[in-house]
TrEMBL record:
Keywords: ATP synthesis, ATP-binding, CF(1), Ion transport, Membrane, Nucleotide-binding, Translocase, Transport. This is ATP synthase A/B type C-terminal domain-containing protein. It comes from the Bacteria. PROSITE patterns: ATPASE_ALPHA_BETA (PS00152). It is found in: Membrane. The keyword Transport applies. Belongs to the ATPase alpha/beta chains family. The lineage of its organism: Bacteria, Bacillati, Bacillota, Bacilli, Bacillales. InterPro entries: ATP-synt_VA_C, ATPase_a/bsu_AS, ATPase_alpha/beta_chains, ATPase_F1/V1_b/a_C, P-loop_NTPase. Its main location: membrane. Residues 248-333 form the ATP synthase A/B type C-terminal domain. It comes from Pseudalkalibacillus berkeleyi. The keyword NAD does not apply.
């Protein structure tokens, strides 16, 4: 069993060999959502059907031994953003896809992440898409380098050498295949220290099963959280990361993350009844679950540094260790005496 847990898909190989994985998966009878969940680790490779893995290996024109990586540790980049570090941590050197409609805060969380990690020594770079995007003009100051073409991006990254790079690009560069070509060129000169963030300025990714191809991390934004101003509006049930595969993660982190998801899943179900029939519709036996779900949802909101001028709240950084301890207290009922609004937009407990 330990061997089965200590394996994952070779996502970078899939990305290299099958750039248009959505249509390729469908062509061999695979559901793109299943492939996406295998890539991010939401479905452990050890639980995948053999025929699914064989089909993926066939698409990538590789052997199963090449498709499945054993025993390699994935390094996590800690951001100090509670919801991200808990549910969908960044994989260093991997690719994260942001799935959101316009106005849900994807660019805010992008620049907030970049600002935080610049202090840790990362260099930040934005490849601007074609056309005029006012929302991008508003955030250019947060990037140390901006480029306008794949060739210019390649030259800039090559000149940065061994520095750790955070690279942001729009989905349009994925669809043209340019991003795939860039990653191949960088690998050919030994540059593998680039963590890539893919955004979708048109908001079309929400309608696709596999909008960016294979990913190590997926940040799915949530309309319900957005409309209730619960930021960052990261969906805790659908956002995920290959870092969360048991073999690569502290077991305490995995356990707390799974417990938190279970609580929030049931809380959301109960909340649907409350919205229609009122709080009295919640059975007495589940009232504690509902209230703790409310508290956890509130706790996972967080003031951002880049939004201080707009919110009037000082940005907060919370270490992963503190987040896990705080969430465990909420799950165990140690915070039941606190009002929900006391947990809204705080740092740690």
């Amino acid at each position: 069993m330990e061997i089965l847990e200590n394996i994952r898909l070779n996502v970078s190989l899939l990305r290299k060999r099958v750039p248009n994985l959505t249509s390729a998966a469908r062509s061999v009878g695979l559901r793109p959502a299943t492939v996406s969940n295998l890539c991010t680790g939401k479905i452990p490779v050890g639980r995948a059907e053999v025929k699914t893995l064989v089909a993926l290996a066939s698409l990538a024109e590789c052997s199963l031994d090449e498709l499945i990586i054993r025993g390699e540790k994935i390094d996590m980049i800690e951001t100090g953003i509670k919801a991200l570090d808990l549910f969908a941590p960044l994989a260093k050197g991997g690719t994260v896809g942001l799935v959101a409609r316009p106005g849900m805060g994807q660019l805010v969380i992008l620049v907030e992440t970049f600002e935080r990690l610049k202090k840790e020594g990362y260099t930040t770079l934005l490849l601007k898409p074609e056309g005029d995007h006012k929302e991008l003009n508003d955030i250019l100051e947060y990037f140390e380098h901006t480029t306008t073409s794949i060739d210019e991006t390649y030259e800039k990254m090559a000149s940065l050498g061994k520095k750790d790079i955070l690279f942001a690009a729009d989905r349009s560069h994925v669809l043209t295949g340019e991003l795939h070509d860039l990653q191949e060129r960088l690998q050919s000169i030994g540059i593998e220290n680039v963590t890539t963030f893919l955004v979708d300025l048109k908001g079309e990714a929400v309608d696709e099963d596999l909008p960016y191809g294979p990913l190590e991390t997926l940040w799915q934004f949530d309309m319900d959280l957005t409309t209730r101003h619960k930021f960052p509006a990261i969906n805790p049930l659908y956002s995920t990361s290959s870092v969360l595969e048991g073999a690569h993660l502290d077991q305490h982190h995995l356990t707390i993350s799974q417990r938190a998801q279970k609580l929030l899943r049931r809380y959301r179900e109960l909340r649907a009844f409350v919205n229609v029939k009122g709080i009295e519709s919640v059975p007495d036996a589940e009232m504690a679950t509902y209230k703790r779900g409310e508290r956890l949802e509130a706790y996972l909101t967080q003031p951002f540094y880049v939004a201080e001028a707009f919110t009037g709240k000082k940005g907060e950084t919370v270490s992963l260790k503190t987040t896990l301890n705080d969430v465990q207290k909420i799950l165990d009922g140690s915070v039941d005496s606190k009002e929900v609004d006391q947990l809204d937009y705080i740092g740690s407990l």
